[in-house]
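Worked problem 6 (solution included).
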Amino acid sequence: MPTVAARTRAAARAGRDRGSFTAELAAGLPALMLLLLAGLTAVNAVTTKAHCVDAARDAALAAARGEAGDAAGRRAAPDGATVSVNVGGDLVTATVEAPVRLLSTRLPRFTVSATAVAAVEPGQSGPVQ
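Solution. The predicted structure is:
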């Protein structure tokens, strides 16, 4: 059976550790939240980039077929995106740029873009921008 002195030493050691989990949680929780915010922003940026790629491809193909490329690109583009279609010789180039929305409005925004190139279809009178 432990002596009174041994029990007192054990109680003193346990008393020094009290609250250490709370202090570690208070120090680590902001870092964890920042990491979560960065991960969610990265997922949002990749999703927005994929939508821009689809919209640029649709705009370039539509303009190469003689249809309205801007309208086709805007249908597939994410909200707030700008679509531009340029015709140069036998090639149509479509560019879509969209802002990436962050979870906090106080953080700076950044923009992702995608470009697609298509050859003008034979027999078409000319691409429509």
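Discussion: Residues 4-119 form one domain.
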